[in-house]
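ESCALATION

Customer reports they have been waiting on this structure for their group meeting. Please prioritize. Original submission:
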Amino acid sequence: MSSYHIKEVHAGDLEECAEIIRQGFGTVARDFGLTAENCPTNGAFIKADRLISDMNKGNLMYGLFADACMVGFMQLEKKSCSQYELEKITVIPQFRHSGLGKKLLEFAMTKAKESGATKLTIGIIEENSILKKWYTANGFVHTGTQKFDFLPFTVGFMEATL
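Update from on-call: job pushed to the front of the queue and completed.
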């Protein structure tokens, strides 16, 4: 596969998007012992109805395609006139480590900036040091952590200035 492109997804694509998110988040869920019982809101267990709800709220959703096959996904939620939150960004395991995640991230940053944002935020598993280093290498700074009773990990917050 030689041709990669990112395009907006629509309601009819959301079942496939949910599957891409489950595949992408599944490896992290296994690594950190997340299950549908101890972390039902994790992307590894997402259903299309959650994406339908997010789309109905006005969230922007994009698929990353290798030729005609979706291999990645990301979502942007407008938090304020100047801030978007990046959510559910993932590339399925067999397409990782080839720069596609960075392409998705750069696309997200561009879209948020074009929409008037000056800041892009993200929440990650704080204990995921590999992911934290990746975001840091791509212009994000760590801004804090929070422990939620309903999550079996600490959430780390990061942001990038656009």
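Sent to customer with the following note: Helices lie at 14-31, 48-56, 100-114, 129-137.
Escalation resolved.
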